[in-house]
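Supplementary Methods S3. Input chains for the assembly prediction are listed below.
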Amino acid sequence: MPGMAADSEVRWLTAEDQRTWRAFLVGVVTLLSTVEAQLQRDSGIPFGYYEILVRLSEAPDRSMRMSQLAEASTSSKSRLSHAVARLEERGWVERLDCETDRRGQFARLTDAGFAALAAAAPSHVEQVRRSLFDRITPEQVRQLDAIMTAIAAGGVPDAEAIGCPLACDGETDGTAEAG
Amino acid sequence: MPGMAADSEVRWLTAEDQRTWRAFLVGVVTLLSTVEAQLQRDSGIPFGYYEILVRLSEAPDRSMRMSQLAEASTSSKSRLSHAVARLEERGWVERLDCETDRRGQFARLTDAGFAALAAAAPSHVEQVRRSLFDRITPEQVRQLDAIMTAIAAGGVPDAEAIGCPLACDGETDGTAEAG
DNA sequence: CAGAGTTTGTTGAACACTCAATTGACTATC
DNA sequence: GATAGTCAATTGAGTGTTCAACAAACTCTG
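Predicted structure tokens for the full assembly:
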């Protein structure tokens, strides 16, 4: 909003950038709220919890250290801690102590959790396809990938969500596959 | 996650689409959480509230019908109702009755609200620039605009956030400018 | 104009997230 | 081997969001 206040040296966005920023916000909210609503309605799983289940399902032994899991699901430690507590109540995740670092905790996906994920996945994937991939061309998919990768590069500047990649014992360092 | 359960007819995402979807989620969370944190930290304004203030600041008489404002800020009516209540407590917004429709309410930005917005805008815009526009090329800006516009087309399928575009008296139908 | 259906906007409860503070355990330094 | 500093993870308070239910006003139809 140029000409709004005493701004002198502020580099405001160009009109084009403003339009793009607006389009970005509307697009993201539209897409995410649709996907979240479908998942919640049809499977009773908040999207943030779903992401945690997916990451665990891809990990060796279906378990991960809390810090590692927080980073993998782009979540703060606090948020993950609360979320895992809820998932534990549902019987979908269990906590295990780390043998080599007594501060450490592993979260492991239970069979019930895996079953819940398997039950929720088809309709969720279908929704993602309808809301995103059916609406853009293959070329745009590649463009989107490049853009989002560039945006994510460097990560969140100072948040405590950033953890050291090394953990308790030898891990696969984030080389899991699907989602 | 192909091969996960009895899925038979489910059209899973391709490996490329999965990577893009993941990149999208990481990029969006990274960008939005950075922008939200900056705004909250430096100005004490939640991002959702900031958006409401911006929409109002662009509207004629700095006021809008609640439904219209909900749609403009891609918010549910419930969420907006709560948000405006908080903004009213801060003295940044006031409610006015609609003369021609006694169900109707207008939200109007107060001078204090406008001042708060003006104070918050520079550093916020700077953050958006650093987190988004400094990281992608001008060509990618155009690509992003096209992609996000395509994603947003059609809007949220069934949510109550979608309101009728017409309202109380003659409005500008969403032709406001900056952000 | 009576009644059904729709629209506007609010409310309260349940739930999720953020922030700051805290505990317990590891690590480096002297 | 004490001490200070860091790291992993949790906790609780405060705040924001969602969902379903609701009240009041408008509109359409007969």
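Residues 37, 40, 65-67, 70, 77-78, 80-82, 85, 98, 101, 103-105, 163-164 of chain B lie near DNA strand C (CB under 10 Å from a C1'). Chain B has one domain: 16-148.
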